[in-house]
Amino acid sequence: MAEDNNKILPDPGTVSLGISNPKNAENMGSVLRAAKCYGVSAVWFTGQRFHYARRFNTDTQQAARQIPTVGCDDLLAMRPRGASIVAVELVEGATPLPAFEHPDNAYYLFGPEDGSLDQTTLDGCDAVVYIPTNGCMNLAATVNVLLYDRLAKRPCSVDNVGWVQATRDTNNRTRKKPTDA
C-alpha cells in the first residue's frame, strides 16, 4: 500500500476525532484504521478503559504510530485551532448526516459505546449530527460512515487508476474487465 495516501486523495481538510471513554479495543483499532484511511490528523480520547484494553486493539495498519492518539481529561479543551466541533450523537434536535455540510476544519466528537456524550460537551459543540439508522451503530461503524460521508461530499479530482494502484493491498492485482467500445 502507498505510504502517504493523502497525496492522491481529495484534500480532506483538517480532521481530528475525539472519542469519549472508549471501552472496546477492537472498535478503537477500527477507528484508528479509518483515521489513517481518511486522513485524520489526531485522535483524542478520554477515560481509562482504552488504556486497559489497548493491547487487544485491532489497528492492523499501525495507525496509532502515525496519528497522534492521546488520552485527555476534556475533549472540548483539545479543540484544534480554528476547528468547528461537531458531535456525532443520536439526540433530539441533531441534524441528519445526509443534510449536513461538513466544515473544512472539523473536530468530530463521538460518545462511548455504552452511553452518550454528556450535556456539557454537547452544549460546547458548534453542530450535532446523527446518522439516520434504525437504532445506533457501534463506534467504529459510526466513525467510518461519518468520514466516508465527509469524503463523498468533497470536491474530487482523482486519477482513478493511479489511486487504485497506489492504495490497494499488495495481494490485489485484479482489474475490471474492459468494456467493448
Automatic annotation (TrEMBL):
According to its UniProt entry, the protein's GO biological process terms are:
methylation
Q: Which Gene Ontology molecular function entries are recorded, alphabetically?
A: methyltransferase activity
InterPro entries in alphabetical order? Alpha/beta_knot_MTases, RNA_MeTrfase_TrmJ/LasT, SpoU_MeTrfase, tRNA_m1G_MTases_N
Q: Does the keyword Ribosomal protein apply?
A: no
Q: Does the keyword Methyltransferase apply?
A: yes
Q: Which Pfam families match?
A: SpoU_methylase
Question: Which residues are in the tRNA/rRNA methyltransferase SpoU type domain?
Answer: 17-148
Record's protein name:
RNA methyltransferase
Q: What domain of life?
A: Bacteria
SUPFAM superfamilies for this protein: alpha/beta knot
Enumerate the UniProt keywords alphabetically: Methyltransferase, S-adenosyl-L-methionine, Transferase
Give the record's family classification. Answer: Belongs to the class IV-like SAM-binding methyltransferase superfamily. RNA methyltransferase TrmH family.
Q: Which organism is it from?
A: Fluctibacter halophilus
**CDD domains xrefs:** SpoU-like (cd18098)
